[in-house]
Structure formats: C-alpha cells, structure tokens
C-alpha cells in the first residue's frame, strides 16, 4: 500500500532539516544589543499629554451635550436622535480607545 522512500531521499530530508537549524554563518543578535523600550522617550510624554488633553476636553464636551440631549423635554426629533448616537459613539472612542492607545 505505501511505498518505501529511498534511503538517499531520507538522508537528504534529514540534512535539510538540520541545516535549517544550523546557526553557523548567520548573524546572532546579542541580548545586550537590544534596546530597552521600558524607559519612555521624551516624545512619548508629549503624546500622552496630547491624548490626555483630548480626553479631558472631549469628555467635558460630550458629557455636556449628552446631558442636555437627555434633559430635553421637547419632542424627540430625528436630529436629536442622530446627535445622541454621535455623542455615544464619540464617548466610546474617548473612554475606550484613547486609554488603550495611551497604554500601548
């Protein structure tokens, strides 16, 4: 049912397998050459500051608009519904995406 593989093919496959793992002649990166990225760079502080300012300004503005839309006693129009959905989507970005972006 199964045919046996010739011995020379088997030896060639074994040789290719071990040649793949042979590190001779390749450049090996020294662990001490790797830059430590746990120390924040100065521009990272600037980015965190900008995101924090955007988060604060967006939170104040969107929560204010959302509160005024919810307190409105007049008839709920399509524009009010659209504005409510836009504010909710913007708050999702502000309170979920921006903190994830800053932490990465």
Structure explained in plain terms:
The structure is a single chain. By secondary structure, this protein is mostly helical. It has a domain at 39-104. It is 68% helix and 0% strand. The chain has three helices and no strands. The protein is elongated. The chain crosses the membrane at residues 46-69, 81-100. Residues 61-104 form the G-protein coupled receptors family 1 profile domain. Keywords: Membrane, Transmembrane, Transmembrane helix. Belongs to the G-protein coupled receptor 1 family. Its main location: membrane.
Helix content: 55-70%
The major sheet is characterized as: none
How large is the share of residues in beta strands?
under 5%
Determine the structural class based on helices, strands and strand pairing.
Answer: mainly alpha
What is the general shape?
elongated
What is the rounded distance between the termini? 56 Å
- Number of contiguous helices: 3
Q: What series of H and E elements makes up the topology? A: HHH
Number of strands: 0
Mean pLDDT figure:
78
Give me the Rg, rounded.
30 Å
Which consecutive residue ranges, at least 5 long each, have pLDDT under 50? Answer: none
Set down the secondary structure blueprint.
Blueprint: H1 7-21, H2 42-71, H3 78-103
Helix pairs in contact: 2-3
Family: Belongs to the G-protein coupled receptor 1 family.
Keywords: Membrane, Transmembrane, Transmembrane helix
Main location: membrane
């Amino acid at each position: 049912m199964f045919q046996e593989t010739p011995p020379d093919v088997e030896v060639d496959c074994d040789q290719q397998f071990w040649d793949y793992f042979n590190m001779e002649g390749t450049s090996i990166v020294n662990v001490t050459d790797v830059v430590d990225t746990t120390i924040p760079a100065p521009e990272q502080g600037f980015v965190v500051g900008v995101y924090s300012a955007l988060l604060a300004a967006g939170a104040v503005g969107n929560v204010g608009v959302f509160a005024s839309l919810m307190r409105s006693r007049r008839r709920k129009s399509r524009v009010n519904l659209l504005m409510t959905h836009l504010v909710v989507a913007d708050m999702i970005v502000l309170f979920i995406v921006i903190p994830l972006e800053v932490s990465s």
